[in-house]
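Table S2 (text version). Query chain:
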Amino acid sequence: MRWTFADPDCPEERAYRERTLAAIDRWWRSFQAKTSDLDALFHRRSEWDLVAWMHDTLGEVHPQLMWEYGSAVRQSGHRLVLTPEGAHWLRPVVRTLLQRAPHVPGWEFYAHRLPEDVPMTIQTVEARVSVNITGALVAASVAPGRKVDLWFRFPLQPQLDERTAANAAFVATEALLGEQVLDTWIGGISLLEEGPKNLRPLPLDRAQATVGAVIGSIGEQLPAGRSQDISDEADNWSSLQLNPGEPADDFAGRDDLLFATTADIERFRAAHCGRLFASACHTRCGELFCYLKLDGQDVPRRQVVEFRSRFEEALNPVLVQAGAGCCVGGGSGLRYAYIDLALTDVQQAIPLIRQVLTTGRAPLRSWLLFMDSELAHEWVGAYPQTPPPPLPAED
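Corresponding structure-token output:
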């Protein structure tokens, strides 16, 4: 269920939001009352069931939220990480949870697991995977879609089976680089034996700097300006044909896409490769990449491009003039038409988009959707009565 763009006039969404906010506030009250007991537990002055208490209190906010305690980074004291881990669509809820956190002396709160040094990374992998990765080597390479692929080798553990080695590589990546870098920038995590021959493996203590340099090089190649300020000459655009598979009654995301045009082929690859998408990998200007999804079920096939272009040509100058964004691509699918957007101000853009869609009599089933994985369950309807779009499962 959506959170950031929940409709206050929808009873179900309003009840979900009110229920969750109440649970968040109860959690923080419980936490504040428990800080002395937590400090005593971490200093081994007492023993009690921390796991059960977290399950009963934080679990009331959402059962898929995970947690991790550790030492504070900026002061003497403790830190608490609250993360949805793989349930990326819960990140908007986590942001709200931390925004409502009280000031608690001696405590720091984070939404991602922080990067650790090499000794702590080795300890973490051993605790979670039962593998000692001392002496591990890692190589980094730029991947399609402005991601970074990592390749691991564990020379002191030649007996490791492939699955255990892969698990160790994933946990090592999360611990050494931190959860935010993992979710935003890391593409594939593989074993070095499977990688290209020209990779140059380095010790773990050089991995953070190496990955940081690769990320920096990706960022340096991005345009310095906003998408709306960059020339839209034909030479900058690419046309693609896709294979969406078998016809179906409906399609989540852009699963029915047949033909597409894009102003940025690497961003398109990132959005369609099945990995996590983060707008931060594709802009220096804080743009959020989104798309309009227009139901073309009743549009004759030969008129789909004209149908989409009518809305695109009306919308782009409105967004550009307002400084709220622009159109950066589009496409046609087995059922839907799509218009890709780069928005610099989403809240300003939404009423403009709705006005254009309403004036052009867009289908009732028309939505603004978001490419970022953490916004995969967020949407804005063209009309107040627009029903929810088909969405991927919450797993």
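Notes on Table S2: The first strand starts at residue 66 and ends at 71. The longest helix spans residues 11-42.
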